[in-house]
């Protein structure tokens, strides 16, 4: 097990280095001189030169690269070109919003998706199964901004149950009101994915010998399904849901835009629009960290759940 | 396509009604898109300043937008862009990704490990963020958008092509080819590709759905083809700006995207069940 973990860690480190290198060069390929972009068309040559020095763009590429890697490792990701605040601060300011939304969506997704998936698997190829499968396929066909806009039109504009714009601070009910629609939007799409994953994981487990044994010795069917089968299906469910991180992040970006909610997604879109190139670089580093850490945890969970994985 | 692949796909169709439904809806949309210049009631960028933000009427069946343009006409023409970008980027990703996956599976060893590790990282990176960054950097033109969306789905095809290549590589007929002294390229393209083609084709319908969704998402964020070109994502973006007083503007293109993506998912899901019953219902 320890060699397996060590190897996954080594892989994660190499991957991290490769992606950081890629990010460094991608950002430097952006057309246009960042100094010119910050100062505008009217800037004098002197001012541009001074800005280039401030940004460290006048130094050799190799030096910039080493400093970038060293900074990335220490958590120093530079200063936003637009606001002048450190990238870390910019990110930390909106991070709680994104975490709150993501967790709420995962809870909704699991609370709806796991029971539906189990129900579909138990009723395989019956009407219930077909309805659940069609509904989950419809759910994951929704672009997050289309479902978000539909929710907004129906609940915020027609019924006026929720605010059209998210508000910061205020009472608990205001907080809940602002979180509800974005979380439901993201949560329903997650539920669609989780339903499908749960269904197939359950089908796999329900075919196992120990399920037959449990039934043969007289364990009630409900207990077999919920206690024996679901428990064993949960780990593959968790690891596969980990693989949907990318989908979840993409959908949360769209959800934040539709509901005008602060968060990492709005931050990165703002950085792109304003050509805030250090903020953009920092955000890509953060996404890379998140992706690699979740991948590593997924691999480890998978290895722990299935000893055969380690042998490969 | 060889006999085996065709037979597999035909069997898939005969056993799955939802695949049929998906295919029929998809073909209808393709036909409407192809005929758009002839069946659209108006020019998609023609402005009628006396009929702005109007509801449905005989003249404008789905109403007009804030510039007085016919929503139905824009929707029909927009289908051409959505489908073209989706199909072109999926084809590009299919070609490049399958080639990478086949080579990785065929040669194995360290080459396989390095290439697939790179693909896994790319696969794990949020597709929308990658697409956003690429389009923002390169500029929102038709080739760049196709390139960016293709880049996000290359790793998926590499994975799909690699596994069956490894499985097929050990079969007797491939060993026979080797014994006959055939080149690697000949074995890969004439003997292995036909046998894994069905799986690649099935996955491409699911990825086409994803490509169309990504294109619409990019356009919604403002990184689609420049206005006044009608794209579904762009129409939703414009409708969203007027959501408080004219919420129906965003509804028509939103439903259009949903219908096409759902049809493709139905088609791909049904086909995959038939090609590999073990995967039934997996996502």
TrEMBL record, chain A:
ABC transmembrane type-1 domain mapped to chain residues: 95-298
Bilayer topology: Multi-pass membrane protein
Protein name: Peptide/nickel transport system permease protein
InterPro entries given in the database record: BPD_transp_1_N, MetI-like, MetI-like_sf
Locations listed in the record: Cell membrane
Family as reported in the entry's similarity comment: Belongs to the binding-protein-dependent transport system permease family.
Gene Ontology MF term list: dipeptide transmembrane transporter activity
SUPFAM superfamilies: MetI-like
Positions of transmembrane segments: 9-30, 101-122, 134-157, 172-194, 233-259, 279-302
Pfam families: BPD_transp_1, BPD_transp_1_N
Keywords in alphabetical order: Cell membrane, Membrane, Transmembrane, Transmembrane helix, Transport
GO cellular component, one term: plasma membrane
From TrEMBL, chain B:
Superkingdom in the source lineage: Bacteria
Any single GO CC term annotated in Swiss-Prot or TrEMBL for this entry: plasma membrane
Membrane topology: Multi-pass membrane protein
GO biological process: peptide transport; protein transport; transmembrane transport
Record key words, sorted: Cell membrane, Membrane, Peptide transport, Protein transport, Transmembrane, Transmembrane helix, Transport
Primary localisation category: membrane
Gene3D superfamilies xrefs: MetI-like (1.10.3720.10)
TM region(s), chain numbering: 20-40, 83-109, 121-139, 145-161, 188-209, 247-268
Every ABC transmembrane type-1 domain range: 79-268
UniProt keyword Protein transport present: yes
Subcellular compartments: Cell membrane
PANTHER family reported for this sequence: D,D-DIPEPTIDE TRANSPORT SYSTEM PERMEASE PROTEIN DDPC-RELATED (PTHR43386:SF1), OLIGOPEPTIDE TRANSPORT SYSTEM PERMEASE PROTEIN APPC (PTHR43386)
Family per similarity comment: Belongs to the binding-protein-dependent transport system permease family.
Protein's name in the database: Peptide/nickel transport system permease protein
Species the sequence originates in: Roseococcus suduntuyensis
